[in-house]
Structure formats: structure tokens, C-alpha cells
Amino acid sequence: MANITKRGNSYSIRVSCGYDSKGRQIMQSMTWKPDPKMTPRQIEKELNRQAVIFEEKCNMGYQSKAVKFEVFAEEWFESYAKPNLRNTTYERMLQLRGRAYAAIGHMRMDKITPRQIQAFVNTLSKDGANERTGKPLAPKTIRHNLSFISDVFSYAVKMGVVSENPCSKVTIPKGQPTEKKIYTIEEVEKFLTLLNDEPLKYRTFFNIMIYSGFRRGEMLGLEWKDVDFENNVISVRRTSNYTAKQGTYTDTTKTRRSQRSLKFPQEIMDMLKEHKAEQDEQAHKYGDKWVETDRLYTKWNGEPMQNGTPYFWLGEFCEKHDLPFYGLHSFRHLFCSLLVHNGVDIATVSGAMGHSCISTTSNLYCHMIGDAQAKVAAAVSNSLNFHKKKDGKNTA
């Protein structure tokens, strides 16, 4: 309820709008001055009306003139982000708060301009932005920072706090494009040969990655009921993820189209059967200590394998055998590259990769697709030249 105080010939109307992220009460106020010709009865009636109108405006969005970005962003986290975003996305947004709050957290929502947000984004592409390496932030990280601010403003527009999202006019600096690192065929052949001497669990893990392009979370989320040994098919139905707050947990796939099924060579399925038999033997060995999760990839006691385990194992393996280390995601790039360069159409590639739409595949792998299309054109050209020469010879 509004608090009204008389000050000389005017009245101060104050309304409580809750509390900020530090527990401090947020108060909004306005001053109303009555017409000198008004009677006391008229003043009382109009004053109460002004108080009701002002309180309603405050309840609709803290009266956008005064709410600051940090205060409203915390409301967004609690009211929208927490119940609607995937856990991994929510955790990432929490980590991005520091930079954004330092730059614009103290500013009123309605006073933040595209130029100010552009200036903030530009600083992220400068040397020193990455405190660990002293280099600029990666373009993807810069996009995440801008997306956080934009999502807060989009919510503010819906809540009536501001009239438009200033981030719509902001451009991310191009920066220096980085080429995706992909293993060569020779390196992959060497990798698979050396892998034959490693534990069966990792042999199956990396063979499946190479033959499927599955994401790390999708690999770790695989369960034995997802494996169809009769038809040599493995299906992605869930992911295994990790956050500092929740630890390892099971989640839905990244998008609906990420749920997909791929057929595998018989040798891969035979290797999986051996892995299953080995896992069953291990479960029998540990008895009551074994935790039944149905996962293909587990810790010693059957609990889901930690997300970082395959990454660190691969790093040690590559170092031991003097192989380049490009990380787990490089096998996904390799899978896409092999499909594209063997003439698989873009719609099929997109489905196999589990992308939400074909444009995602085109945007991410435009360079590969361009090279493949150039080879197609060259092949057609060579074929036509061959026929021209042949026809010329016959004519002569």
C-alpha cells in the first residue's frame, strides 16, 4: 500500500517494490502537487486516486524509470531462467553475470542504449578480455554474453519494463575466424590401431563417436536399451550432463531432432557385445556395491561415468602416442566431414548430426560444404571435357 506524506504544498507518494539481490528494499516515489483552487475534499479524493494509479504502475514493472539492470536480471533468473532453461544453460548464464553487472548492472533499464551495450561487447574482443590467456574472448563466448543481456531485455519488454530490446541493434565483432581442427584419415587410422590395445570401454566409446558424431553428453547418456543388436542400430534418447551445483545428472537431448537412430557396422556391434559381457562380469564381481543404471559407460561401481573422464583419458592417450589432441568434439567434425566429402546430401547430414534444422548444419560447416560442392562442379566439368575430347576425336 502506498505511503503518503505531506511536504509543504505537495505530497510525496512512496511504494515498496520488493527487495533487490542484496536484500535491500526497493522504494519508488513520486510527488503530486494539488491545484490551489481545489477544496480539501477534492485534494483527498484526487490524492488517493494518484496513489492507486502510481502503485499499479509500480506493480507492473517497478516503474521502469528506476529499476537497474542487475536488480531486474536477478528477477529474470528467479522468475524465468530457473524454471525454463536447461540446467547447463542456466549455470552458464549465472557465470556470465559478473562481466555484465560490472559494465551495466548499475544502470537503469530504460537508460541503457545500444551504443553502451556495443561498447561492452567490443571490449570482449580486445586483448586481455580472457583473464586466463590474456587474449580476446572466443566469438562463441562473446555471443553468450550478449545473449544473456538480450534475454533479460526480452523479458523486460514482456513485463512492460522497457519498450524495446537495445541488443537487437548490437553487432558482434567478427574477430579472427578459427578453422575447425579435424584429424586426417591417416591420423584416425593410427588412432584406431593404437586403440586396440586399450580397455574395451574406451575402444567402444571412441569407435562409436567416430562412426556417429554423437555429442559427449549423448554418448554418456546411452543405455543398453538404446542398443538394437538385431538391427545394428543405436539410438540417442537422453544426455548425461554435469553442473557444479547438481553434479552428474540425466537430461533431455539438446533439441527434439537430437533424438535419432543410426546404423553401425557389424564389427562395432560385436565390440559392444564384448563390452556388455565385460560389464556384466564386473557387476557380478562387485555384487551389492554395483549400482544398476543401464548405462554403457560407467564408473567402477556402475554409476554414470563423469563427463570429464573421456576428455582427460583422450588427452593422456594422445600425449602417450604423440598424436595431436583436438578434444572430443573434433570427432563430431570428422564425422560430418566424412559425410560431406562422400557426397551425402545436406538434409541427411543434418539429421545424422542431430541439428535442429538444416541451416544449422550449413552455417557450421559451410566451408566443408563449399569445398565438396566445388569438387562436384570440377567432376562435372572434367566429365564434360572428356566427352568433348571424345567427340572431337570421333569427328576427326
- Determine Rg (CA atoms, Å): 30 Å
Widest β-sheet, arrangement of strands: 1-2-3
Task: Quickly give the CATH architecture of the largest domain.
Answer: Orthogonal Bundle
Low-confidence stretches: none
Count up the helices. Answer: 14
For the record, the CATH class of the largest domain is Mainly Alpha
Named CATH topology of the largest domain: hpI Integrase, Chain A
Mean of all residue-level pLDDT scores: 86
What portion of residues is helical? 40-55%
Task: Decide which structural class fits the backbone.
Answer: mainly alpha
Number of strands: 8
| Series of secondary-structure elements, N-terminal to C-terminal | EEEHHHHHHHHEEEEEHHHHHH
- First CA to last CA: what distance? 101 Å
Approximately what portion of the residues adopt beta-strand conformation? 5-15%
The global form is: elongated
The description of the largest β-sheet is:
3 strands, antiparallel
CATH superfamily of the largest domain: Intergrase catalytic core
Keywords: DNA integration, DNA recombination, DNA-binding
GO molecular function, one term: DNA binding
InterPro entries: CB (IPR044068), DNA_brk_join_enz (IPR011010), Integrase-like_cat_sf (IPR013762), Integrase_catalytic (IPR002104), Integrase_recombinase_N (IPR010998), Integrase_SAM-like_N (IPR004107), Tyrosine_recombinase_XerCD (IPR050090)
Protein name: Recombinase
Overall description:
- There is one protein chain.
- With 396 residues, the chain is mainly α.
- The chain has 14 helices and 8 strands.
- The protein folds into 4 domains: 3-59, no CATH class; 69-169, DNA polymerase, domain 1 (Orthogonal Bundle); 185-320, Intergrase catalytic core (hpI Integrase, Chain A), CATH 1.10.443; 328-396, no CATH class.
- The strands form 3 sheets. It has a 3-stranded antiparallel β-sheet with strand order 1-2-3, with helices on one face. The chain has a 3-stranded antiparallel β-sheet with strand order 4-5-8, with no helix packed on it. Strands 6-7 form a two-stranded antiparallel ribbon.
- β6 and β7 form a beta hairpin.
- α12 (346-353) packs across α13 (358-364).
- The relative contact order is 0.07.
